[in-house]
Amino acid sequence: MKILVCIKQVPDMESRFKLNSEGTWYDESDLAFRMNEYDEYAVEQAVQLKEQLGGEPEITVLSIGPDRVVEALKKALAMGADRAVHVKDDKYYQKDPWQVASVIAGHAAGQGYDLVFTGMQSQDRGSAQVGVTVAELLGFGCATTLVGFTYDAGVIMAKRELEGGSKGVIKLKLPAVVTCQLGLNTPRYPTLPNIMKAKKKEIVVQAVSELLKEAEVTGTGGMYPPAKRGGGIVIEGEVNDQLDKLMRILKEKTTVLRAA
Amino acid sequence: MNFELSQDHKVLKDSVRDFVVNEIKPLAMQIDEEHMIPDDLVRKMGEMGFLGSYLPEEYGGAGLDMLSYAIVVEEVSKACGSSGVLISAHTSLACGPIYTFGTEEQKKKWLPDLNTGKVIGCFLLTEPDAGSDAGAIATTYKRDGDHFVINGSKIFITNGGYKGTGVLFATSDKNLKHKGVSAFIIDLQSPGVEILKNEKKLGIRGSYTTAFALDSVRIPVENLLGQEGQGFKIAMDTLNGGRIGIASQALGIAEGAFDLALAYSKERKQFGHPICELQAIQFKLADMYAKIETSKLMTYKAACLKDSKKNYTMESAMCKMLASEAATFVTKEAIQIHGGYGFIVDYEVERMYRDAKITEIYEGTNEVQRVVVSKLLLS
Fold it and tell me: Residue ranges of the Acyl-CoA oxidase/dehydrogenase middle domain (chain B) (predicted)?
């Protein structure tokens, strides 16, 4: 079995974000980056499957982006992936989800992958389109938002998270793409010996221009932070005056007192 | 000149940090209160490879470098100084000398269990009357057939309470001073090894600081480490490397306290504003951060020099000095920024302040470090 895990490196969500000069993406200077959290579950699930199958499957982990994404690839290698593909692209943020998916599909074509794991979405762009589009381009089956995964004799049982806390279980034959939701498993910590072993694993570098054949179909119109919230209103005065003021605000500014 | 960590070191740092935040940080207060690190955490740190980071893979180590080791101790110490010194004393003072001075047979016999954390290591040099003056030790050894027989006592032995594997120093004749000292690998489960007590301390309370009586302890002759009479050199060389570990521990404690103080200064409001808007607090933060960064640069430099097999004696003495003094300064200011809350156990900087002090003392007092540096300057 050949497994592909698609991961993205994203800014640490604790960071303070500033917009870039074009106002189309965030400014990357001074940001710390880490593996997209959803993708950590994808890597872990792939490694668990490899362990379940006695180490037979080969896991390739792929990431698109500038040189820094190698850190995320190395982490995945230290978690148990076998080899990595770095699709080098300094302007990755100008690609729309369609192009990103087509780059991944371009790499995957002819590689004979049976199963593709990826996160349900990235923490920075959050389009949740790449996984399903890759499946479509490769002609694979697809299940999204996995919170449970089992595999037996060529068939995946995928537990999916639905609205309102209900779950759905679907069966899926290989080849397939699955996208992983938070809580699917407990991603392991890369141990020091495995970080050392990862240094000896292969990282193939491919230029994005070799794989990108598609033009963008959507473009970023603009990006802006939420408006700063005001400091709230302090109502002062006699209790009765306070109540009157509060009632007036509730009537004028909110819907809570309006008749249905 | 490039001051950035390599990608491999960044991956390591992030991975260690994730482990520390999830597995160690939540236990730090308990470790301080109960005066012990849970066995389960020691086991997990062993599985993570924290207890043999820079030792070669063939002896059960992770095969990484000294800089990786410094990063591990630093990251762990951000959350828990006791766990930091467990790693530092174990790795630098037990695994280190066995690897550097041991025979192939000794390395194969002792290192795999140490490097994977199955056995915890310690360094038995200090005695009631021999601290900084290590040549004055009075614990004796005498050859008796296939064994050396050891008599004496040791105090302030970090990790001693685990009764694992120790690197022990004893003299054939006290009058020979440092020339009479030899080093031995000792299994502390041997008959005649008795724990007199685990000390109660100001800080790093989760770390064992043990006093031993050694009564006719028989050590097989093959456990002699290096040559007879080479013990003092082994001790000094070992402490030289150990200082990088203690500097990293001190650095971590300082960073842990700084992070808390910085966050608190943004949350705490007085006179209608967060206190970080007051210049008095801003200047404290600037001084704290500058000391942390200075210590970090010197600590990483010492580690990199050791990695590239260059002389690092001066830098290891300086990084230990700088980082430990940064730790006592930063933790003190962190309490000041917290005001009364900083004096309360629940706010953690109180523990960090107590944990910091020992870093100015052990593995060579800062006065000894200044002797080392000035001697090299004037030699």
Answer: 122-217
